[in-house]
Amino acid sequence: MIRAAVLPAVNATLELREIDLPQPGPGQVRVRLAAAGVCHSDLSLSNGTLRQPVPAVLGHEGAGTVTAVGDGVTSHAPGDRVVLNWAPSCGACHYCGLGEPWLCANAMAGAAVPYARTADGQDLYPGLSSAVFAEETVVSAHAALPVPDGVPLTDAALLGCAVLTGYGAIHHAARVREGESVAVFGVGGVGLAVIQAARIAGAGHVVAVDVAPGKEELARKSGATEFLVSAPDTAKRIRKLTGGHGADVAVECVGRAATIRAAWDSTRRGGRTTVVGIGGKEEQVSFSALEIFHFGRTLSGCVYGNCDPARDLPVLAEHIRAGRLDLAGMVTDRIGLDGIPAAFDAMLAGRGGRALVIF
């Protein structure tokens, strides 16, 4: 039996429980978690914005040590340090065949299959196939990637979602070029990673926007050159900061219609607006046909930073070792499993950066 934070039903409060976690089956590994990040996507799973069978153990941003491997697993051994990939690609579907593993049609298949049981025998589902809000988890061997040398195991948890997403949004989705201006809407865990990635890419102006004035210090430490508190005239102020034209790139990390619209409005003619935030179906964004023609902007979604973790993790590790990427600086709260509900409340209130569960 292990301890886990269990979501008993959609919109319910997480409950600390003892659960029965089986040994890994064929093609699986068991991982003892060192740390798990609390991501806004976990909040979206808990409140029904994203679908997730329940009861479930949420959490998808984690790193730890392999303790056991199932039959047929030769890629891992007990003692290996791994970071979890919550969207492992199958390598066989249409999108994988196109070289777009972040869109894999089968990446989420594991989330619909029970992986453990409660003490009274009820099936439990793994949030985003990972279930890292627990002392240990069992995942597909394909979902466990080696932690690069020189990266502390607890910090490595952030590589599993926030950092890959933020880095990819800049380098793969928006393809920021040296000297370009970037506006980042939302200074949470992913937003901080976006800001750092923009700095690494050599962006000129990096304008961070958030509803909370207290986020300014975090944003500037990550590489923002300007900070704005969100207001109805945010787009106008960004244009003023960028020579009257607007930002070359705007990255939206909130997932709200109003913020997506503000990011679009702050982008220059011919610029790129990239949406990273995950919003609900009720968040509807409107554009006129004339403005789409006139501004010539590109609006694109971004799934998991359009990343291939096996390809991108070594690149990120080199940035970490060189001191260009600061993982610890993204973390504002180090908590236990019992602190996750408060971390959810902090996200809803717009407080802090990344909360990290330390085991």
Structure description:
- The protein is 26% helix and 26% strand.
- It is globular and about 60 Å long.
- A hairpin with a 7-residue loop joins strand 1 (2-7) and strand 2.
- It has 359 residues and is an alpha/beta fold.
- The two termini are 16 Å apart.
- The strands form 3 sheets. Strands 3, 5, 6, 9, 10, 17 and 18 form a 7-stranded mixed sheet that branches. Strands 13-12-11-14-15-16 form a 6-stranded parallel sheet, with helices on both faces. A 5-stranded mixed barrel has the order 1-2-7-8-4.
- Helix 4 crosses helix 5 (189-200).
What's the helix count?
Answer: 11
Which residue ranges are poorly predicted, with pLDDT under 50 across at least 5 consecutive positions? none
Helix content: 25-40%
Strand content: 25-35%
Distance between the termini: 16 Å
Q: In angstroms, what is the radius of gyration?
A: 20 Å
Give, in order, the helices and strands.
EEEHEEEHEEEEHHEHEHEHEHEHEHEHE
Would you tell me the structural class of the helices and strands?
Answer: alpha/beta
Give the beta-strand count: 18
Largest sheet: 7 strands, mixed
Q: State the shape.
A: globular
Average of pLDDT: 96
